[in-house]
Predict the 3D structure of the following.
Amino acid sequence: MNIIKHLREKVGYSQQELADIIKVSRQTIINYENGQIPSAQNVQKLAKAFDVSESDILNGHLPVEPSYEIIPAKAQKNEQQMRISIPQENITKFKEVFLYIINKIGSKYNVGQTVLYKILYFIDFDYYEKYEEQLIGAKYIKNTYGPTPVDFAKIVREMLKNGDCVEVKRKCFKHDQTKYLPIREADISCLSAKELEHINYTMKKYANWSAKELSDYSHKDVPWLAAEDRGVIDYEAVFYRTPETSVREYTND
């Protein structure tokens, strides 16, 4: 199996479309799919185009497969309800929170795909640490540049197709950047006042951070540190955070 061909077909790009994205000829893509090893620069571009790690491209590893499966809550009760650490993905919430974010800060120069990944991650994991409840409950994996929401590409492609938002490719400080701009307003009726307050606080906190600053900061977070490369990040690890990334005041009681 050729990993580049597999990923290209999975995402739905033609050879010419992929060639245009990484700025090479179609023949170069054909050569890669026939076994030619890409240059280091093009490995980086291919990894970004497919939202996988560079090692996946070089070693032919299949990335963690996105899924729309929603895992129902299985609360266990003794005298009190226990925390549920299994992500309970809520696709409707994911879409509306994503739209809410890009309506508020999507036009900011620094807010591209990488920044959005990290803001979504901190919305989810900070909320879980504060309230021991899930907000979106998306699954995140440990990537080179920080946490990545597993289903992001699949869900956002559906939103693009439905006309909820548009994707814009541009340069940001000489680096390729993917931005998303809203077409419609978010329906926040699916969010509680507490959830909305938390989302607004998190956006305000990180809206002016660069992609590198957010990536570096996420690398200090215990849930990311504890996960295996390309492995799913465990929500329960927020309760072992250091003071630098913790958002909850703990007592000695």
Notes: Residues 91-240 form one domain.
